[in-house]
Write a structure and sequence with these properties.
0% strand, Sterol_desaturase/TMEM195
């Protein structure tokens, strides 16, 4: 059984979601039931796509592994010690590209569609990740000698860690925020304010944001607004999953020449 579906993990997630609901109600923040139901609809729709992704990408990465010029031993702790920052580095660039390249944003935008920052909103994942091909960022890791099982395992831990980042119940964490991604960092990442857009791309670590100049912190005079900039809110999971693709198709259909077509497909969102 995959760790994401283990009863213990699911039970802990449910307990934390319920605790967060109680905290938000006690603090007067409210809990949008309609937004929560939309998230559950996205999760339900994602199940068959996730199974297809696992099947096809498992085969693709296994094929890459068979022709990898070097193979680092999976049972050596040094492989995992090197693999962790390598996967984090690849994730940073995948995540950054998912905000800057329209083809990738079409899938990733689903994750940013919630207008409340809650633990449950972390489960808003696009249905079209296989098609948008963000997995390409991880293929070089296999050719660098990292077993696909290590890559997928560390990515699973990365995403599990990020579940805890999607909340307003945790404040600033002091020196921890110099190295690790925290709820404060990730709240700003989900902001639709022009001052905050396209910042804080890290997964577990925030160090690559520091190195590449994409780190930002919340300003007292600029409270965070969640949701998608320049897109109306909708509670329809199917529309959320597919509407950016429809806009891409519309713009591609009226493009005049290769340059406009490339901009429609791969320009900034």
């Amino acid at each position: 059984m995959s760790p994401e579906r283990s009863p213990v993990w699911l039970a802990m997630m449910l307990a934390l979601v319920l605790a967060e609901v109680a905290w938000r109600m006690r603090k007067g923040h409210g809990y949008d039931a309609r937004t929560a139901l939309t998230t559950l609809g996205i999760v339900a729709g994602n199940i068959p796509f996730a199974a297809l992704n696992a099947l096809l990408l498992g085969g693709l990465f296994t094929a890459a592994w068979t022709i990898a010029p070097i193979r680092l031993p999976l049972d050596d702790w040094r492989t995992w010690a090197a693999g962790f920052p390598a996967v984090e580095f690849a994730y940073y660039w995948f995540h950054r590209a998912s905000h800057r390249v329209r083809w990738l944003w079409a899938s990733h935008s689903v994750h940013h569609s919630a207008t409340q920052m809650t633990l449950l909103s972390s489960l808003r994942l696009g249905w079209t990740n296989l098609f948008s091909a963000g997995w390409i960022f991880y293929v070089p890791l296999v050719f660098a000698g990292f077993d696909p099982r290590l890559v997928f395992g560390l990515l699973a831990l990365n995403l599990r860690y990020q579940f805890f980042l999607h909340t307003e119940a945790v404040g600033r964490l002091g020196p921890v925020e110099w190295i690790f991604n925290t709820p404060a960092h990730h709240r700003l990442h989900h902001a639709s304010n022009p001052a905050y857009i396209d910042r804080n791309y890290g997964g577990v670590l925030i160090v690559f944001d520091r190195l590449f100049g994409t780190l930002a912190t919340e300003r007292p005079d600029e409270p965070i607004r969640y949701g998608l900039a320049h897109r109306e809110a909708t509670a329809n999971p199917i529309r959320l999953a597919l509407r950016e693709w429809s806009y891409i198709a519309r713009d591609a259909a009226v493009a005049r020449g290769p340059r406009q077509l490339a901009r429609a497909l791969f320009g900034a969102p």
